[in-house]
Amino acid sequence: MARKSNSDSGEGINLDSLMDALTNVVAVLILVLILVQADVTQKVIQFTEDLQPATPEQVEQAKILLAEAVAKKQSIEEKLQQDAPTPEQLEEEKRRIALLEKSIQTNDKLLADLNELKILEAKVRQERDAENLTTVRIQEEIAKLEAQLDQTPVIKAPPPTEVNIPNSRPIPPKAVVYHALAIRDRIHMIDPHTPLAMFEEEFRKHRRDWLAERIKRQGGDRMIYDPTKIAAHFNTFDFKSPPGQKTEIITQPVWPFLQIAITPDLGKGGTPLDALEKPGSEFSKTVARLMSNIRNVVLFHVNPDSFNTYLKARGLIDKTKVPAGWEVWGGNSWRFTIPDVEVKRLQEPPPPPPQAGPKPPPPVGPKLD
Question: What is the Cα–Cα distance from 116 to 167, expressed in whole angstroms?
Fold first, then answer.
């Protein structure tokens, strides 16, 4: 009798461990399946409990959507039951589609032109509005000016001033001429003799220092002096000028003689119109001194803005019997040449312009009236 093999021997394979592992896995899977089933059941119950009942409006809206869907389905089914289009119909549709595409391109161009026209219209409207605004402002300004003009009183011209044309007569050869400048309603009395005498006295003291050239000639040498040195010396010289007047030596580069310029202060110097008759005014004191010598003469140089002032001063002069004359004059200072002192030219004078036409008459000197 054969011996029974032993399953526990080391030669056989033991499957107990494998069976235990498979059993454990199946048990875990069954457990997971039970848990998932329980969770799904719970979620379904929760979803059912949380579900809100539909309102009548929602039910009606759903019915409408359902009806539309049914109608659309029916339309699609009818189209599916129709016969397929023939090749000729397909070609006709293609031709219509091509025409439609071309029409769309044309319409796009027209729309682009229309947009440009709209932009241009907006620009023109903006310019028009700006012009209208400017026009309104100008009209408002014109209206304001017209209102101001209506309220402005009419200015009447002052009565004309009568100035008689003088019966002129020449100034006596030995007359001592004084000058009166009528400008800005003031009378400025000019004494040219005192500064000339002071210049001659000072010149005699320094003539040797100022000599520039000596020319020998028969009957007496010709003396030519340096104008630069003379002007520098008299730049700070005190001529004892009356208040409101300035006296200075003037040199010209192309002129061989010196000039004395007496410039009054047009705003503060001289005597104003309303003070001409006052005894202590400069005009009254000067007129009193002129009465002491019958050779004294007064020449008025009248600016066009001061005829009334001249007439007032002239009436006062005429009462003193001092001879007088006048002329229209536009300067603001009085200058006269020192003829006895010749100076060296610093520049050669330009040639005189050619004479055109007849020779003009000689200038008329000052006259008395």
Answer: 86
Supply 218's token pair: 């028969």
pLDDT confidence of residue 188: 94
Per residue in 259-303, pLDDT (tens digit) is 999 999 998 889 999 999 988 888 999 889 989 889 999 999 999
pLDDT one-digit tens code per residue, 174-220: 899 999 999 999 999 999 999 999 999 999 999 999 999 998 888 78
Within 10 A of 181 (CB to CB), how many other CB atoms are there?
28
Query: β-pairing, 296-302 with 176-183?
Result: parallel
As given in the structure block, the two tokens for residue 38 are 């329980």
- Do both 197 and 338 map to the same domain? yes
Quote the CA–CA distance of 314 and 320 in Å, as a whole number.
10
Over range 247-257, report the average pLDDT: 91
* Dist CA 341 CA 230 (whole Å): 11
For 207, phi then psi, to 5°, come to -60, -35
Residue 251 buriedness (CB in 10 A; 0-12 / 13-18 / 19+): middle
CA angle (340 as vertex; 338, 345 as ends), nearest 5: 75
- Structure tokens that stand for 140 in this block: 């408002």
Structure tokens at 98: 């091509």
Mean pLDDT along residues 23-27: 80
What's the token pair of residue 252? 């010209």
Q: Are 144 and 176 members of one domain?
A: no
Residue 243 structural domain: 172-347
Q: By C-alpha distance, which of 289, 49, 48, 267 is closest to 191?
A: 289
**Which of 183, 165, 166, 193 is closest to 323 using CA atoms?**
166
3-state secondary structure labels for all residues of 108-145: HHHHHHHHHHHHHHHHHHHHHHHHHHHHHHHHHHHHHH
Query: Structural domain tally of the chain?
Result: 2
149 with 272: CB under 8 angstroms? no
Residue 363 corresponds to which tokens in the numbers above? 């200038």
Considering only the C-alpha atoms of the chain, give the largest distance between any 2 of them, rounded to a whole number of Å. Answer: 202
Site of tokens 């010396």: 233
Residue 131 placed within a domain: yes
Q: Which residue has the tokens 């009568």?
A: 162
Give dist(CA 251, CA 171) in Å, integer.
29
Structure tokens at 64: 């409408």
